[in-house]
Design goal:
With 269 residues, the protein is of the alpha+beta class. Helix content is 27%, strand content 22%. The chain is built from 7 helices and 8 strands, in the order ββαβααββαββαβαα. Strands 1, 2, 3, 4, 5, 6, 7 and 8 form an 8-stranded mixed beta sheet that branches. The longest helix is centred in the middle third of the chain and has 18 residues. The radius of gyration is 19 Å and the shape is elongated. About 14% of the residues have low confidence.
Length: 269
């Protein structure tokens, strides 16, 4: 899916009726986000929080296996609840593009996902809710997930030998002591691809990796072979800018003046 902006970017700042589904996500199920139940990987992480009773639950409003993989590096599985918001992204983006620069579209999309999630979900009295959306932008166009091999070829050729932009919007909403705090952030990373000939593109398509990823590539997988350099956050390209998320969590802890012995929000508290 390629979405053409109504007005190309002029500046360097870019910026269904189903029920929600629960997901247990693993790397081996990195095909279609939200396609059925998945099993956790064996847990080789360090012991995170023994006193899990004080861990504030985090609801991840995303079906992305990559985001789940990153979140579970920092929180125990018992504290993570994955819900996939039902949003017609293509239609929503088309409505947003005439009103916002592409960078801001990502932020508005994550806000819409948050509202969709809350409209169909009964939140715990105390919790954190996180939604995110990652967009690949080239030549004033948003490159979505390719529908088929030919669409993947077209996207990869458009990225060959040049720079593109990856933007991720984050929306974090925290409910504590009957109070609510909503924070948003947008992260931007510049990525340079090396030259891709037909042999490289066909090899990559045969791996099956392009089909569930915006821009038809994954930096954390076989797509790493194509990336000459980047400027900005690596994990933003993967789908979740971890440093930016930690900054939002720190702002949340400071806002509520939380006792770290009563509430675990940051992984190290």
């Amino acid at each position: 899916m390629v979405i053409q902006a109504c007005q190309p970017e002029k500046h360097n700042h870019y910026g269904q009726p189903d029920k929600f589904k629960n997901f247990n996500v693993s790397r081996e199920a990195e095909n279609e986000a939200g396609a059925g139940n998945r099993q956790h990987k064996s847990d080789d992480r360090p012991n995170l929080h023994d006193d899990a009773q004080h861990q504030l639950p985090i609801i991840l409003g995303s079906g992305s296996p990559r985001r789940y993989e990153l979140i579970r590096r920092f929180w125990p599985d018992a504290a993570i609840d994955v819900k996939k918001p039902v949003v017609n992204e293509a239609a929503l983006i088309q409505r947003l593009i005439p009103r916002y620069c592409l960078r801001d579209v990502a932020g508005q999309l994550t806000r819409a996902k948050m509202e969709a999630l809350k409209s169909d979900l009964s939140l715990p009295e105390e919790c954190m809710v996180l939604t995110a959306d990652t967009m690949v932008i080239a030549d004033g166009q948003i490159l979505g997930k390719p529908a088929d091999a030919q669409a993947a070829r077209i996207m990869l050729r458009s990225l060959s030998g040049r720079k593109h932009i990856v933007v991720t919007g984050l929306c974090l909403e925290t409910h504590i002591r009957k109070k609510k705090l909503s924070l948003q952030a947008v992260e931007r990373t510049e990525v340079w691809f090396g030259k891709l000939d037909d042999a490289k593109i066909e090899w990559y398509i045969q791996t099956g990796e392009p089909f569930d990823k915006a821009g038809a590539y994954g930096i954390q997988g076989y797509g790493a072979a194509f990336i000459e350099k980047l400027s900005g956050c690596y994990y933003n390209v993967m789908g979740l800018p971890v440093f930016r998320l930690m900054d939002l969590l720190q702002q949340t802890a400071d806002h509520f003046k939380l006792d770290k012995n009563l509430y675990h929000i940051l992984p190290w508290n």
